[in-house]
Write a structure and sequence with these properties.
11 helices; two-stranded antiparallel sheet; alpha/beta; 2 domains; Rossmann fold
Length: 275
């Protein structure tokens, strides 16, 4: 007797059992093969071929090894932009969208010069450029590889940015109305709090910083007055334990400005504004 072929629905159910995110397998397969939700649902009733079963098993294994789904499919969504991501850059996070929303809410359409320090995939700079066509936005990073990807994302979305290879302010010219940064801010002894997928696959240079994660904030605080226009503003993403420490750094550097800690949707300290 011929053995009946396994159905897609059975294969997906079996392979998803051990995954942290039960829908990750569907997300990856649908995106790799450009299937609509309806096409995917119809597929579930069909017998799965040996070739597809082997390929699906391979994807499930990668997910089981904690490889981020975004790296497998090659993109992540950020502020309605589909951005190319791979192991050269950090995967943009939903919390960072809140930083973008705050900047947009507090700054009107009129012309502004903006600097994004540590741009990575270009997420913050491109999200701002999409909503504020008048702004002159410079995106910098110390990683040449990250900048290559950010430039690709700018080209894909037909958004015009200036890109500069720079370690914080090292190669930065001019002065800016807004300086924004989501720098590396995790202390080296905090890896116990992190997901394996982050530790194993995302770039260390985009995650970790010296001085208990405060090193880049300190660099920005100490030098920003040279690059910020008199009425300029600074916006930063921070680690949830760093609110007071980062606030202290910027209050010392900018005694005449108002430094505020803002919470994210999970009620954790996540952003700093210097206005």
């Amino acid at each position: 007797m011929r053995k009946e072929k396994m159905l897609w629905i059975e294969a997906v159910r079996q392979l998803s059992q051990d995954l942290e995110e039960p829908f990750a397998l569907e997300f990856v397969w649908r995106n790799l093969h450009e299937l609509t939700k309806l096409q995917w649902l119809n597929l579930q009733r069909e017998a799965i071929s040996d070739t597809d079963l082997a390929a699906l098993t391979s994807v499930a294994q990668r997910l089981k090894n904690n490889e981020p789904p975004q790296y497998i499919v090659g993109w992540a969504e950020f502020c309605d932009l589909k951005l190319a991501v791979d192991e050269r850059v950090l995967i943009p996070r939903p919390e960072t969208e809140e930083l973008v929303q705050m900047i947009l809410a507090e700054n009107e359409q009129d012309k502004r010069a903006v600097l994004d320090i540590g741009t990575g995939s270009g997420a913050i700079a491109l999200a701002l450029a999409q909503k504020r066509k008048q702004w002159d936005i410079t995106a910098s990073d110390l990683s040449e590889k990250a900048l290559e990807l950010a430039q690709l994302n700018a080209k894909t979305h037909q958004l015009s940015l200036n890109f500069i290879l720079s370690d914080v302010f090292e190669n930065i010219p001019g002065q800016y109305d807004i300086i924004v940064s989501n720098p590396p801010y995790i202390a080296f002894d905090e890896t116990y709090e992190m997901d394996q997928s982050v530790i194993r696959f995302e770039p260390d240079s985009a995650l970790f910083a010296e001085k208990q994660g405060l090193a880049i904030y300190q660099k920005i605080a100490e030098a920003a007055h040279q690059f910020l226009k008199p009425q300029g503003k600074i916006y930063l993403e921070i680690g949830y334990k760093q609110g007071q420490a980062v606030k202290d750094l910027f209050e010392k550097a900018f005694p005449a400005k108002k430094v505020c800690v803002h919470r994210d949707i999970f009620e954790k300290d996540r952003m700093i504004s210097v206005t």
